[in-house]
Amino acid sequence: MRILRLIAACLLCASLALPGHAQTANSSDSSEYLIKAGFTYNFAKLMQWPASTFPQPDSPIVIGILGTDPFGNTLDTVLAGKKVNARSFVVKHLKWGTDIKGCNILYVSTSEAAHLDEIFRMVKGLPILTIGQMPDFAKRGGIINFIIEDDKVRFEVNVEAAKQADINISSRLLTLAKIIPQTGSDGSKTP
Amino acid sequence: MTKHALKQTTAPPANGFWGRIAKRSRQCVEARLAELRPSVCLRVSDGAAEFTKRMLVTAFTAVFLATTLCAQSGPDGPDVTSMSVEDLMNLQVTSVSKRAQKVADAAAAVFVITQDDIEHSGARSIPEILRMVPGLEVARIDENKWAIASRGFNGRFDDKLLVLIDGRSVYTPLFSGVYWDVEDVPLEDIDRIEVIRGPGATLWGANAVNGVINIITKTAKATQGGFIKVEGGDTQLTADSARYGGEIGTKGSYRIYGKYFDWKPSTDMSNQQASDGWHQARGGFRSDWALSQADTLTVQGDVYSSRDGETITLPMLAAPYSSTFGNTGAYSGGNILGHWTHSSSNNSSFSLQGYFDRTNFSDNSLFVDHESVFDIDFQHDFHLGQANEIVWGAGYRSIQDRNLPSFTVAVTPNSAQYNQFSAFVQDEITLLDQRLRVTVGSKFEHNAFTGFEFEPNFRALGNISKNQSIWFAVSRAVRTPALTEEGLRLNDAVIPPGAPPFNSPLPVIEAIFGSNQFQSEDLIAYEVGYRVQATSSFSADIAAFYNNYTNLRTAEPGTPFVEGSPVPTDVVVPFVALNKMSGGTYGIEPYFDWKALSKWKLFGSYSYLRMKIHKNADSLDPTADLPNGENPEHQFYFRSALDLPWHIEQNLIVRYVDQLPSYAIGGYTSLDGGIHWKPKSNIEFSFDGENWLNHRHIEFIPDFINTQPTVVGRSFHGGITWSFGKRQ
């Protein structure tokens, strides 16, 4: 038990001596969600929303995270102070039932898997970039779906869904994506 | 000879049931320990505390300075917003968040060991990896034998822990335990090990009483390219492995591997060389297929062959009535598994899995055994309404066992086939705006010995805030009888004619018998836990439990009888397996993960366990010891993993395991760790040491079979890994 106390003391020393470093620790985390935050930033850069979406040239891009937030505060930290053209980012945490229509990017957490069809119905025809990370997300009508392959982050794009949302995806992004044809479960979403 | 006489005259008590055998070995061990202690244990441990302290301070100061230096010199990690999509696609996901992800949603004491944790542990075998898990007791008996348990009842033949490798249950139906010397995978191929302490019976079924260990290997797609690894050290002469993975057309991928190792015998407590050397060759493959958008198929298999040894004391019917010798045995086997998953679009998926597993033990003077297990399982997941996620499944398992008895061990019938049927259903209900998740379910099982078993559980997880959750669970689990508990005869000891306590003119065999009266052991478990992700770099988890057991195994004396075969005629004093022990255990298991700096990761855990098991009033089991003193009350594990400049990584582990009073084994502290250097992305040099402080100790005294434990001393190993092809 003496050893326990000793280690506790060492840890305490470490935490006191290095407060500055400790706080910057997460910014160098190459965890899955840090990478996904990087992708999200790039998506915002490489997508074009219809001109009417933003009232002002410097209106922020609103990212809504619907359901259990898998990012922790990584997304907030990564995007803090960052701008695409003149637009900064606002990250909102949304619960099922709250209005999701004010978002430009809607990140659908896996906790909402049960509501997927409803979510797609709600955003139908709206210029909202839906992002998910579950099997079939893109196939069923989501625009971008993250997948992990070989321990690396990859993404699928449902081009048809993007078209319906009137969101223009740069061809550079499309060449890197896995293109997924839409085969909605009820068939109604496929034109 | 009457029962009464037996009760009064039976030699001093040993622990519980099968542990009677250990009684004798324990006496030997204690005697040997007494010789050894003045020379090794005591002297070392007197100075050890002081020395440990000094070493720790030095080590921590070193880590501390190094960290400060590298924090100042190194770049502070990737700025993902300045990276292109192509760059991001090339970043490898580290698994730090995987643990948090997995664990955060579970209303159970789950612990996930990632590949990263394995690399940082310097471990060479699965048991060594498991030492980091809070709530597990891991003790080395000799070079090739381990005692591993979750939340108490540790023993070489621990029967309350279920172990699965890629969904294949590897516990042996013979004693419901795990042959830790048989089960292995290339450690590099492990994706993660999920350890659930507490009952997992609803999903996994009988024998998932105190815990489930789920070893999950990477997909073939994740192991493309190849590597060759050559390792060696002072105890392990060589450990070599190689793997290659490639693609099959556009839809499939595969990997094949081979592995060989050879361990030198270690020394016993009187510094004599023991007979516990072993070597093993193993090979296998895995292939994964994306049959269509919705269907995936995995086919995998392994074959292995090994020879290992032990120093063992066995009874004999002729003078000197027991013999201690180096016993060696061979084992070999293989398995093949297929797993098919189909996901349909409406939030529903099903999977079908089947496997065949064969294990042969041969050329062993103790016991020869051939086991075959065939198992098929079906599982279906679907959403019902918005709140319910339902999983149900059914399974069939066929066990075939054929054994050749020796004088010491026999299992009747020596050739038999057993069937097991099971089904389960579980509903996870999401309530209160996602903040509460309630899980209810049960397993229903039918086995050949006790018939129908019912194992329900209730679990609830509440999210107090975005980054904090609490959970609690009440569950029932049973441990169904193993083949040995039904049909074993184990000749524990032979008392020479005329010797006390029996003073019989004939030699007396003390024997343990299985019984068809033996019932399942029962557990009702109450668990509670709390988790917090305090910052993105610090998370902590704490779990506490109270387990209430009934119908635990005892060895009840039976009526002595005379037998004429084998020659010479002898008297048998039987002890019969029955269920006359009960009681409670409780404990608490906190751990934390702290990324103190981008290049410095700390992990620590503590386990507290208290056992209050007692024999029922009607038990006549003459043995006095209970499982209570056979498990460490306190355990502590701390690890520091530090990335230094020039691609050097330094790991430091401090472990403390409390004393085992029943075995007169003192507590020990082990300082392990080493350096890994990756001069190029495809070459790695490693150097690791175990027990740097050289606190020579034994960790356990085996029950059931009188194998001599050997000493764990200081040891080192080094290796080179060369990767080639697409990527490691």
**Terminal residue distance of chain A:** 69 Å
Number of continuous helical runs of chain B: 9
* CATH T-level fold name of chain B: Maltoporin, Chain A
Chain pair with largest interface: A-B, 70 and 72 residues
The portion of residues forming beta strands of chain A comes to 15-25%
Total domain modules of chain A: 1
Mean of all residue-level pLDDT scores of chain B:
83
Helix content percent band of chain A: 25-40%
Which consecutive residue ranges of chain B, at least 5 long each, have pLDDT under 50?
1-49, 55-77, 94-102
Instruction: Please summarize the sheet with the most strands of chain B.
Output: 22 strands, antiparallel, barrel
Corresponding CATH architecture of chain B? Beta Barrel
Number of strands of chain B: 35
Spell out the helices and strands of chain A N to C. HHHEEHEEHEEEHEHE
Taken from the alpha-carbon principal axes, the silhouette of chain A is globular
Distance between the termini of chain B: 68 Å
Shape descriptor of chain B: globular
Structural class of chain A: alpha/beta
Radius of gyration of chain A: 19 Å
Polypeptide structure, described:
- The complex is a heterodimer of chains A (191) and B (728).
- Chain A has 191 residues and is of the alpha/beta class.
- Helix content of chain A is 33%, strand content 20%.
- In chain A, helix 5 links the parallel strand 4 and strand 5 (129-132).
- The longest helix of chain A has 16 residues, at 2-17.
- Chain A is globular, with a radius of gyration of 19 Å.
- Chain B has 728 residues and is mainly beta.
- Chain B has a single domain (3-673, 686-724), classed as Beta Barrel (Maltoporin, Chain A).
- The longest helix of chain B has 33 residues, at 41-73.
- Classes of the chains: A alpha/beta (191), B mainly beta (728).
- Chains A and B meet through helix 1, helix 2, helix 3, helix 4 and strand 7 of A and helix 3, helix 4, helix 5, strand 29 and strand 30 of B.
